[in-house]
Inverse folding.
């Protein structure tokens, strides 16, 4: 029983990490119709900026309020990177899907190379608060605090995004744009500002995932964003393009499936089962769990 509880909570921690990355991807594709393969770069920038700030930024550190300052710096760096990418590279290429894919894939590869050239290709120990190295006893299971931190962060981010979409003017514009972008434009609303805002939100969530994911794993590396981006795309497709709630459901399914199968089966079998789940969803419900059927 203890093993089931531990696997469930660690699976939810992994799901939380996937959701933090996938939520921005889902919003960006839902509104701007952009498959952003450079999204992992925002995660990497957030992780390395947090790592750098913890050791160099005045007031920042690896424990207490200093860690909060370091994470805030990393989130700000990831957000800034996302905004610059949208303004400089993506904005001129809206409605040009092939060019978008080529540019974002190229930027992703260039970003990894830049991180490797700056800080090396090897993983580096990540400064993290002492309490995140410890465990908490829940119903007899020793659960790592790093995973619990991810779960709390993901719940807060989901609540914040849903509140923003529900109760703010730009949130309403984004929701309307996801449903019918042409109608919003015809009403005289400049959706380009909403595009930039969505990229900023996605960049912030990805950067937070980079910082807290590095706490969870204990290291930071240039390839970290790319490996997580693969599962984030799977989560977005399973959940339904443009649906943040669908991404949350899909992240839970993927995280739990991966954790349980890897434990009770052989190592790596969980990844295969996740891909199999993706195939089943695409065959039986192509629009995803919470996606809507496309109409002509």
């Amino acid at each position: 029983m203890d093993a089931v509880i531990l696997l469930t909570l660690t699976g939810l921690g992994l799901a939380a990490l996937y959701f933090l990355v996938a939520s921005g991807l889902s919003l960006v594709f839902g509104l701007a119709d952009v498959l952003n393969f450079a999204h992992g770069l925002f995660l990497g920038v957030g992780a390395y900026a947090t790592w750098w700030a913890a050791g160099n930024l005045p007031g920042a550190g690896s424990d207490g309020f200093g860690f909060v300052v370091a994470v805030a710096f990393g989130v700000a760096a990831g957000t800034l990177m996302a905004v610059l990418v949208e303004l400089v590279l993506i904005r001129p290429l809206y409605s040009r899907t092939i060019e978008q894919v080529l540019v974002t894939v190229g930027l992703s590869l260039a970003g990894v190379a830049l991180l490797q050239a700056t800080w090396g290709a090897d993983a580096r120990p990540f400064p993290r608060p002492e309490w995140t190295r410890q465990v908490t006893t829940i119903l007899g299971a020793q659960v790592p605090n790093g995973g619990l931190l991810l779960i709390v962060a993901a719940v807060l981010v989901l609540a914040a995004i849903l509140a923003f979409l529900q109760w703010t003017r730009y949130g309403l514009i984004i929701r309307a744009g996801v449903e019918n972008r042409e109608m919003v434009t015809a009403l005289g609303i400049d959706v380009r500002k909403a595009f930039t805002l969505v990229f900023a939100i996605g960049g912030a969530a990805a950067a937070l995932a980079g910082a807290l994911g590095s706490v969870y794993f204990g290291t930071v590396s240039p390839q970290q964003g790319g490996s997580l981006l693969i599962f984030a795309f799977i989560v977005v497709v399973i959940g339904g393009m443009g649906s943040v709630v669908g991404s949350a459901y899909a992240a839970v399914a993927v995280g739990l499936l991966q954790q349980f199968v890897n434990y009770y089966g052989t190592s790596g079998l969980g990844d295969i089962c996740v891909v199999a789940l993706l195939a089943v969803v695409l065959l039986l419900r192509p629009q995803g769990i919470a996606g809507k059927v496309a109409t002509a």
Observations:
- Strands lie at 124-125, 135-138, 141-144, 219-220.
- The chain has a mean pLDDT of 86.
- The first strand starts at residue 124 and ends at 125.
- The two ends are 50 Å apart (CA to CA).
